[in-house]
Design a protein that fits this description.
Layout lengths: L1 H23 L8 H6 L12 E6 L2 E7 L5 E7 L8 E7 L13 E2 L2 E2 L4 H10 L3 E5 L14 H11 L3 H22 L4 E11 L1 H12 L5 E5 L24 E7 L7 H10 L5 E6 L14 H5 L1
Parallel strand pairs: 4-7, 4-8, 8-9, 9-10, 10-11
Antiparallel strand pairs: 1-2, 2-3, 3-7, 5-6
Helix pairs in contact: 5-6
Amino acid sequence: MIKIIGMILAITFSLVFGYWYSFLALDEIPMEQAEIIQQYQYNSEQAVELILTEIEPHLFTFTYKSFDQSLVNGQISYPKNQADKYPVLIGISAMGRGYQRWWSESFKGRPTVTQVNKITELADKNGYVVISIDARYHGKRKNPDRTLRSIMNDLHFFGDKTDYEAMIKNTVIDHRVLLDWVSQQNNLDKSNISVVGYSMGGQIGLILASLDQRISKIISIVPPYLDDKTALVAPKNFISLLKNQDVLLLTADDDENASKSENNFIFKHISSPKKVRIDFSGGHILPDDYVDSLSDFLAG
């Protein structure tokens, strides 16, 4: 009887898996780079009205309307040492994390395991203005009717990539609109704009820096590797556009979101000659002291 039950379960599993693989699982569908780039175009001539609210000296929250009139929430900090022009660091959070992580070692009782708050501290010491916004479906932009879990379940289990790709793509464009505002500010150094992103933030950062030459430096920390199942938001389809920027890629040798060979592929195909890679032992959450490796890059 046990053997019969086992056989029935095995057959059922095989049938279910076969159905999923044949009809629901995503197929790789390559896209031409020009076709991908076209999807990220927007009206860059529209005025950006960013509304600042001071919460303490040198620290402000803000909102602005993006290309599609979606409301974007974020935070900006100015260094205590005044200057005529400040370099800019744009921080992009990991999936499920809000902009507050860049200024806090914990949020709502949960530690900032990505250590990005230490990056802000380092940037502040080097005179940077630090800016971060919520990605779509994150933080103050959460949609109770469309949770991150439901978006990722649709992607992985039902082969529906629509909202996942839109989330990444539109967040990239939100950042391009933010760059429009940065470019209008007389006290911000438009020739010294850095982007730093962790995990999903590293993915978004690579895409953003590839598309927008206003970014002079990109630090991508353990970005996930994506193939052409989600070609529209796979960094590998953009990084040949990184021609002249300074690029720092931080990877892990046992990262569940990117294998050694995948990380090797990404670094190899970054076109900029000014690229550096640092590979850490361990998984997707890097050692607490990894931020120390960013010192020279941000000081330069």
